[in-house]
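Hi there,

I know you've been waiting on this one. I reran it after we fixed the sequence typo, so this is the corrected version. Both the input and the resulting structure follow.
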Amino acid sequence: MFTGIIETLGTVEDIIQEGSNTHFGITSVLAPELKVDQSVSHNGVCLTVTKIDNKKYWVTAIKETLTKSNLGDWKVGSKVNLERCMLNNGRFDGHIVQGHIDQTGTCTAIKEEKGSWVFNYEYDPSIGNVTVEKGSIAINGVSLTCFNSKENSFSVAIIPYTYEHTNFHQLKVGDTVNLEFDIIGKYVKKLVGIH
C-alpha cells in the first residue's frame, strides 16, 4: 500500500522487451536502499524490484499492466515518480493508494495560477470510474484532490513543491497519465449497486 506522497524521481535507463513483458532499468537515489522482491510505485503502478545493481534497479511490467497504464509510453530518459510502500509506523500523509491503475486519462489543459498550476484531465467514463468534488485521486501515483468534478473530467491544483519534485513539471497538454480512483469510492459504488 502507498500514500501518494512521492519520494523522488527515477530515470528510465534501459527498456528490454521479452515476449509480452517489458523490463525497465531505472536509476534512482533509492536504488541502494531497495531489496529484491520489494514493491515500489512507479507513476502509481506497483512493480516488484527484480534486480539491483548499484544505483540502478530493474522491474518488469506484464502485458496487462502495459495495456492499462502509460508505462508503454516510457522511453529511455523518461522521469518517473517513485514511492516505496508505506511503513506501518509513520504518519499517513496522502490517501490509500494501492498501486493498481484503473485507467489512463489525458491532460486537456494546464493553467499557471501565479505560483501554482491547475491541470485539467479527461477520462473514459464508460469504464465506470467516478470522481467527486474534493475527493481523492492518484495521478501518476501522486495523491491529489479533485475539483470541477464531472462525469468524464476533473481538475487538480498543483503547488510549487509538488510541481518541482514530481514529473508534473514535464507534463504537457495531450499527455497520458495513470489514474487510480479512490478505493473507498469504488467500494461505496459497488455496495450501492451503481454501474
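Quick highlight: The domain at 8-84 is CATH 2.40.30.20 (Elongation Factor Tu (Ef-tu); domain 3).

Best,
R. S.
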